Amino acid sequence: MSSVINIREIAKKEPKLLPGHRLCAGCAAPVIVKLILSVVEGPVIVANATGCLEVATTIYPYTSWRVPWVHNAFENAASTAAGIDAAIKALRRRGVIKNNKVNIIAFAGDGGTYDIGLQALSGAIERGHDFLYVLYDNEAYMNTGIQRSGGTPMGAATTTSPAGNVIPGKPQHKKPIADIVVAHKAPYVATATPAHWMDLMRKAKKALSIEGPKFLHVLSPCPRGWRHDPSLTMEIAKVAVDTCYFPLWECENGEWRLTDRSLAIAKNPQLKKPVEEFIKVQGRFRHLLRPENKHVIEKLQEYVDAVWADLLKRTGFK
Amino acid sequence: MAAERTQEIVMGLNGNEAVAWAVKQCNVDVVAAYPITPQTIIVEEFSEFVANGEVNTEFVPVESEHSALSACVGAAAVGARAFTATASQGLALMWEILYIAAGLRLPIVMAVVNRALSAPINIHCDHSDAMGARDSGWVQLYVEDSQEAYDTVIQAFRIAEHPDVLLPVMVNLDGFFLSHTLQDVRILPDEVVKKFVGTRDPIKIKVPYLGDKEVPLVLDGETPITLGPLALPDYYFEHKMPQVEAMEKAKEVIKEVNEEYARLSGRKYGNGLTVAYGLDDAEAAVVLLGSAAGTVRYVARELRREGYKVGVLRIRAFRPFPVEDVVEKLSNVKVVCVMDRAISYGARGGPLFMEVRSAFYDSPEKPIILNYIYGLGGRDLPPAVARKIFLELLDIAETGRVKQLINYVGVRE
């Protein structure tokens, strides 16, 4: 598989996720899916966990998917993909499947990955199945109405971590899910956003060229849950990276690299913006801007700084 | 027929090993399983076949039963023949995916080594696990011995993959009573089984957006088939009706496969749905599932020798439930005792009892039908107890007096 991404050629091809689906205006998920599927060469099978992406793209008798697609349940996108991988190996041995490579991609949200699907994901990676797991992380259970998940950041108001008079949003930090996958010794783990689209496509392409379990953690701004104007989706994804709230990196066989804007920030630390820049444009953090909640922003900033400093160390910048 | 039978080899196998041998011979593409007592031997034995290169199967040693069935769903969606095995808590953990496997019409075969459910935790036999999956849309077959476990797993692939059925099939064998008890099992030659089960041949469908050509209903990497979409109130119900019809059609298919297999092996299990003994003239009969049927039939034979008119109806297919068959076979019996190895808390009797009683509602001729709940958590049903039950039934047949409709066998006061 060539590592060059020819945008002109890709733009000529029909998208593999068709328009007409019912995801919200400003939802980043379909952008992420389209970007990733655009770099797939050859056969592909998609396993989709229950969630916004699944329910909004396959309302019977319609479907938006131009690729073979299966939805099993919420927590088992990884084990479904594992079964697909096993079947392809067996069917190839029997001569039923003759293609060189069938790409297997699992798409799941943060609930289906950080929380209820973590066990299945961990097992599938440990067993070394050949698949790409894409976490589109909108940082809460958006499909069921914005409940907090293990991926929700500290201070964010959700319907189960509301900003009350005593508790100002979610008390805990986001789980370092991509680090957890790296700790499994998966051959390729990377973070991405749809705003840094070339970076995302490049990482997807690289991931698909590697044998074994691959993991892409893609930040997916959600206008409904994050309470921002739908037109700001890409801007917010950019600010997430500019503030180092969501750094862009890849870890290939244990070797860490910063990429895209995060690499630029590492080289020129003045580019790093305060986390408040990310917070102030989102309604879910509105309460944090009140003086009595200033300490939450400070804690979040400390956390972001610590994670970033650690990442700089891992990538050889400090 | 004779040729194949003489080629059979006889092996001392327990029920689990018999299942593993059947799976080995059935060209299974993917086995995904997780260990749980008393099912473990199936997985262990099969792992050895894999490790020794005796099968082409891809074995997925998953991290839970939930993932075992999830992986089978993924594998079957691609067109693979998939198998798993579990018991008790493991089946309970699969519960969510049981419905999905059936709803997606994936012909997965699963051996369930029946074991009681916690709490209290118990590793021994009863049918509470499978009864919890009663309404999940799986065909449920219950076997009486290890030979039948072997034979039924082979048959199960044919039943599941039959174009009129396309439903997952659960083969139930009693934990420890069968799973860990050695028996002489006749094993058919590999080629004979391979020919009988064939390879999975996915059905072809027309997809509106793919034009007039028919495409195989599998995810092949190229054809854009959406499997497992969202269906709202406007279409959900329509997805359920074909499952109802398939389950009904499964009755005929189970019978046919039983006949065809009999021609091959000389072994036949009643008409496939039920196995009757002594019912032509029986005044009292016991209806039950699984291995205890052997004990009850042994006692019935003794009693018949002594001149008592007793019989046994073993239900082999609990889903689909052979209503017509049950009514026909039991209509002339005066007293029927349905023996359940499971409780439906708060219900009027056990699950098998409710089926049998309900089957007779519209019949002008109906027996007195009692429920005896027995053997929970592996408690034995010795011949003496079975004998006592038969004698109680004969007494009721004579006097017409029923003291107790629902009875719990051998429980301490």
How is this fold's topology laid out?
The complex is a heterodimer of chains A (318) and B (413).
Chain A (H helix, E strand, L loop, with lengths): L6 H6 L16 H10 L5 E5 L3 H6 L11 E3 L5 H17 L9 E6 L2 H5 L2 H9 L4 E7 L39 H7 L4 E5 L4 H13 L3 E7 L3 H4 L6 H10 L6 E4 L2 E4 L1 H8 L8 H4 L14 H21 L4
Parallel strand pairs in A: 1-2, 1-3, 3-4, 4-6, 5-6
Antiparallel strand pairs in A: 5-7, 7-8
Helix pairs in contact in A: 2-8, 4-6
Chain B lengths: L1 H5 L2 E5 L1 H11 L4 E4 L6 H12 L6 E4 L3 H13 L4 E5 L1 H16 L5 E6 L13 H5 L6 E4 L3 H16 L7 E6 L8 E5 L2 H8 L6 E3 L7 E3 L9 E2 L8 H30 L8 E4 L6 E5 L3 H14 L4 E6 L1 E3 L3 H8 L4 E6 L10 H9 L8 E6 L9 H17 L6 E3 L5
Parallel strand pairs in B: 2-3, 2-4, 4-5, 5-7, 6-7, 13-14, 13-16, 16-17, 17-18
Antiparallel strand pairs in B: 1-8, 6-15, 9-10, 12-14
Kindly summarize this structure in a few lines.
The complex is a heterodimer of chains A (318) and B (413). Helices cover 38% and strands 13% of the residues of chain A.
Query: Would you tell me which CATH topology of chain A applies?
Result: Rossmann fold
* Name given to the CATH homologous superfamily of the largest domain in chain B: Thiamin diphosphate (ThDP)-binding fold, Pyr/PP domains
What is the succession of H and E elements of chain A? Answer: HHEHEHEHHEHEHEHHEEHHH
Unreliable residue stretches of chain A: none
Radius of gyration of chain A: 19 Å
User: Major β-sheet of chain B, in short?
Assistant: 7 strands, mixed
C-alpha Rg of chain B (nearest Å): 21 Å
